[in-house]
Amino acid sequence: MPTATLADHIDALLPQTQCTKCGYEGCRPYAAAIAHGEADINRCPPGGESGVRALAALLGTPSLPLDTSRGTPGPLTVAVIDETHCIGCTLCIDACPVDAIVGTAKRMHTVVEALCTGCDLCVAPCPVDCIVMVPSGRDWTTDDARRSRDRHERRARRLQEDGGTTGRRADRREPAGGHPAPAASVNAGPAPMPATLRPAEPAPEDAAARRRAAIDDALARARARRLATPK
């Protein structure tokens, strides 16, 4: 099979969270590295053990234990920005690989939950520690993966057209792709996605209350960390 075609087939099996935990700048570069024999098939925590087995079956090679030094699989999570502490620095906007964060300089930013992949790449750059990852209450689906791939590719093209600059725009009130910005000032965001890609099932009736409690708890812990940090 031609290498380019093989990379396409490999990429189709990856979850498309674009989390970079594999050591590559996204799912497609990792797929290309596998196709060229430059990377093992067990470096994708979001894909989990089932993802490793799927890649092994495609390539006709023995399966490998998941490399947990790169992270462990778990339920899908999303990012939440604490509006009371966001300073509008835009660093999280620059970090998001799928343009799922909207906002503008010196204004509060918001995560578009439906677009968040749970990569958590926005957490570390935040200078005021106001982003937390919380359970999404749903599964990551094949439609999510397809949309994430498309948005990541559009972002890459935009950055190339902008001369390789960061993801920052003069005004990012609406995410790329015309997805309307949410009305709420704070949105639940991403986190590690499940080990398998399967249609999401309806959440229990009390899921919203549990999720709200999880968000409140995560934000409280983030505030406690800020208070404990020496000035």
UniProtKB/TrEMBL annotation:
Organism ancestry: Bacteria, Pseudomonadati, Pseudomonadota, Betaproteobacteria, Burkholderiales
Name under which the protein is recorded: Ferredoxin
Source organism: Bordetella flabilis
Domain of life: Bacteria
Domain 4Fe-4S ferredoxin-type residue range list: 77-106, 107-136
UniProt domain 4Fe-4S: residue ranges: 1-61
Stretch list, region Disordered: 139-213
Coiled coil stretches, renumbered: none
Keywords: 4Fe-4S, Cell inner membrane, Cell membrane, Electron transport, Iron, Iron-sulfur, Membrane, Metal-binding, Repeat, Translocase, Transport
UniProt cross-references to PANTHER family, sorted A to Z: ION-TRANSLOCATING OXIDOREDUCTASE COMPLEX SUBUNIT B (PTHR42859:SF3), OXIDOREDUCTASE (PTHR42859)
Pfam families in the record: Fer4_21, FeS
InterPro entries noted in UniProt: 4Fe-4S_dom (IPR007202), 4Fe4S_Fe-S-bd (IPR017896), 4Fe4S_Fe_S_CS (IPR017900), Elect_transpt_cplx_RnfB/RsxB (IPR010207), RnfB_subfamily (IPR050294)
Gene3D superfamilies hit by this protein: 3.30.70.20, Electron transport complex subunit B, putative Fe-S cluster
Single GO molecular function: 4 iron, 4 sulfur cluster binding
Bias type Basic and acidic residues, positions: 140-161
